[in-house]
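EI: anyone free to look at a 160-residue chain?
SC: sure, send it
EI:
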Amino acid sequence: MGFTEVTDKEQLLGLAERIKQDFPQSCLMYNNLLLRARGFCSTRRFFIIEDSLDSYVILNQSNDQHSYFIPYCREYEVDQLMKALEETSLVNWRGDLLFGDIQTFLVNPIQALAQKMGVSLTEDRYYRFTYHPHLDTESLRIKPATHSVWVAHFNAAENY
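SC: here you go
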């Protein structure tokens, strides 16, 4: 099982449309897919599982920093994502490594996989706020965010 790169505009737009139903958890990946598909951003690459073209597993890699990844999947696809991450040559488990914008249910599996690969990850937490105007009950021009999503960045440090 491995990843295959998605470069076709229509395929990128199709992926974005498919994960749109997972808002707010998919907002970042959705926006990155749209920016790439519409030609506004070329600093990221997108990969899907080559054996499962209809899955929701997406791996987003930085062109500038090849060790920076944003994985995305649905909860029932965690095992599939972990197997692909373990087998792919895209991830160098011996170099610098950063997994960003991790969905909560991916934290422990990614830590376990990294440990299996001989890597120790450190966790940095931050919060993202997503505004949903259709949920407003008052007529306000600017209102505080109505939803937060917990995500984590992981930095790898090799065990000695």
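EI: The longest strand covers residues 119-130.
SC: 👍
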